[in-house]
């Protein structure tokens, strides 16, 4: 019997129509996916039904695409663990980034039954205290939890709203082109949740450098889904109506301190899961066929330290 949470009627209809899901075929498709994983000598993966179904849904039930995405997911986690995972969610610095509300998943999906909304505020963690990898590790751990338990995010995708009013030149200088490319590769080639739109709001002038470097690295489809709203809340709310923003922004979609507290407790519940996650990954020495050379793909480390930033 499948160990998968049943979708509500609306989400099941969308999964059928938009993701090519056929419920009666799910056992067979999961079995084929799991068999392939077991045949890969280099790959150690979570093979729980709920985890694997996220990849099948995220790839619209193309088994070949799901294989590639899962392989990339574990390859990048193994290659760059400090950026893409954290096995100890009780790590003090990790919890500090969580508790300041750097990444806040809002409780009500867009239009009540649409994509999950993420409010991200990467300027909150001080660039003097936290490395970029510290901050993104939190993002990716929360993403992993979302993938396991949020059907709206898996079926309908994500709408990401970035509030950059606290972003400084020090933050810009931390975000090297190499780190930006790693983040983009992981989030668009490894994660099964689809980003439906990204909104940049309240960004200071110094953020322009990062925006101009990062935007061309995005897949073309995602470039078209990227919107910059400057300091105009009215521009943002044309895409994300005010009621779907949190109370602190004048909306009705939860209180940020309460959401932070909920996710802090949720991390306690996932403590053992992330401890176990060290058992999963890839061993390139055992890979049959071409090794994924991400060092060459990402290129040489660079920085913005010599750039002129207005």
From TrEMBL:
Transmembrane segments: none annotated. GO terms for cellular component: membrane. It comes from the Eukaryota. One of its GO terms (molecular function) is phosphatidylinositol bisphosphate binding. Gene3D superfamilies: Alpha-tocopherol transfer, CRAL-TRIO lipid binding domain, N-terminal domain of phosphatidylinositol transfer protein sec14p. It holds the Pfam family CRAL_TRIO. SUPFAM superfamilies: CRAL/TRIO domain (SSF52087), CRAL/TRIO N-terminal domain (SSF46938). It comes from Glossina morsitans morsitans (Savannah tsetse fly). Residues 90-257 form the CRAL-TRIO domain. SMART domains: CRAL_TRIO_N. Signal peptide: none annotated. This is CRAL-TRIO domain-containing protein.
